[in-house]
């Protein structure tokens, strides 16, 4: 039995080994280096895509191998300090190991593609050349020139509460691919559980749980979307009258305003009558420096409207006289269009069928694309008024670049404290970048300053050209709405760019005739509603950053509010002290 199975009678028996087995054992490489998972000492160095030469350069610079087992590929290795640059030459023992593995520069079979992501391709000379593949762990920097070619435009959505501002903003983000369909489906499911089926689109901008529960925007929501040629920052302003100060801070950052009107029966009338936010928001947007206003007549799909042209014309004809009074030119500064924020009609594409065939104008995104470029000065002095700040692994400040260009690592002066700060990191619409130009809404990580030393209204300036700071200044004001008279000693709140402070009218200097522009020769004892006056203002405490309207309009406009109402708008004429 033992002879048939070649099984020895005793394991201590010394049988003659099989000659074929001896040959196999002799071929084994007992001097091989220890295998360490995840570490391939013979793998080729990683070559970034920008350092890979063209095929012609590879063919010219790569000579044929005389010994493919001992020659390393060094033509494509970048000269700057990579980890393996100063690696010592392997000794004879390691060379032998490498020969058994197929060459000193070649990794083990399959290791290069799995660990380094570099498949090999053969050129005309038969040489294996690594073809780098981008790694998901590598931070790919966007093409800065391409990013800067896109014009940055800040769009603020304003209007009465429940007009549909957040819904339109959320739908725009979905149509432009900034919000995934899966995310919206999740929001829709959560909204149905709260019996608020139509609110789910607004949740893309209303991220606060309190805002979602009440269906009212409290703080200015920020998001962005992009088209082929432009980059748009969405500023979603709160519509409730209690949060108008927040809306003013957002409007100070806007280049373009979108006034959202509800066409539903009763809602338009409520928002447009005295006390409604449609009027106040339009006036505040003009005061903040917005030159162009797009009026979206929303909820045209409502059962009380059903896309009727008569309702669209009715809303338009009622709005034009008031917007003209605010300072908008109906021919050049205003554009009306019907939309539906819930269905997305006329936001990006026209609806199918016989819906709203009477409107032949462009859709909302098409109109934004066709707008002429805004004039900005990237080479001017740096001016970055701040609107907010918080602490997150350092001091993070939010603001808008009004003038000049800032770069990562730059040192600027924080006014009015005159503190030198360093810019550690920059984000433009939550995208980290090394350079920001005028018009961009940014976040900045600051060094050499504490959180309590930064407040909304503070301004970052270039060291060679600081902005003015004022305690006392002269300004021209227009009294919009005030029941009683205003005289010297009257106190109110001034909103100028991102700053809100208490001021007192120290003296009334003169009144200005609306028609002729002539100034009165005597000092008035008081001013009242619809009058224009020049007055001297004094801050109750502290100092604020400002410029004269003539020198720098973005920091020379302001609004006066009292008892929750906007009572006047104005512009800075002269900084006294």
What does this protein structure show overall?
The protein is built from 14 helices and 25 strands. It has 577 residues and is α+β, with helices and mostly antiparallel strands.
Main features:
577 residues, alpha+beta, six-stranded mixed sheet, six-stranded antiparallel barrel, 25 strands, 21% helix, globular
Architecture blueprint of SSEs:
Elements: H1 2-5, H2 19-27, H3 55-61, H4 92-101, H5 111-116, E1 120-122, E2 128-130, H6 144-149, E3 151-158, H7 165-175, H8 181-193, H9 209-214, E4 221-226, E5 230-236, H10 244-251, E6 256-262, H11 267-272, H12 277-287, E7 292-298, H13 309-326, E8 334-338, H14 364-370, E9 383-391, E10 395-400, E11 406-407, E12 411-415, E13 419-428, E14 431-433, E15 435-436, E16 441-447, E17 459-461, E18 468-470, E19 472-479, E20 491-496, E21 499-512, E22 532-539, E23 544-546, E24 557-562, E25 565-575
Please report the distance between the alpha carbons of the first and last residues: 116 Å
Number of helices: 14
Shape: globular
Q: Percent helix among the residues?
A: 10-25%
Strand composition percent: 25-35%
Strand segment count: 25
Q: Low-confidence parts lasting 5 or more residues at pLDDT below 50?
A: 56-148
Spatially, the strands of the biggest sheet line up as: 4-5-3-6-7-8
Give a short synopsis of this structure:
The chain is an alpha+beta fold and 577 residues long.
